What we know:
Blueprint: H1 14-59, H2 64-103, H3 109-161
Helix pairs in contact: 1-2, 1-3, 2-3
Amino acid sequence: MATTKKTNPIDPFAPVRDTILEAVNTAKAQQEKLAGAAQVEADKARAAATEGFDQAIEAYRENFEAAVGATKAAAENLSKIEEMTRAQASELAEDRVAVILKAMSITDPSELMKLQADLIAAEQKKAQAMVKEATTLYQGVAKDLFAPIQAQMTKAFETASKFKAV
């Protein structure tokens, strides 16, 4: 969309437009970089969940069905995190492009500053909401992955408590 510069020597706002177009291109590049990084992190998390699954199967064969269910639930949460991250990155990029396009029509510097401040405030709110939701999902991943281990430990303590001291 905004990938080329067209400088018109008669237009006094041409350098501003060029700068804004560069900002749009930079925002797009950053969004793509963020999406790539999010994919890498999601792959790492998925690999860690799979590794945890393999260890749980080996260590607690008797709880096989519980471990499978826990890992599936964790993978679902990881997928939700991945989807949320991608959606947030796309939404931020779209918002930034919309603001930049709107900024191109503004002639009053104070309106431009307000627009920028509003964008920053909106992005901060969205980031806070995303962190809150991601934290909840990561807690769900941890809970789901460790549920079979916790059940095994509870069972072991219950069994041990039945023994009488000599």
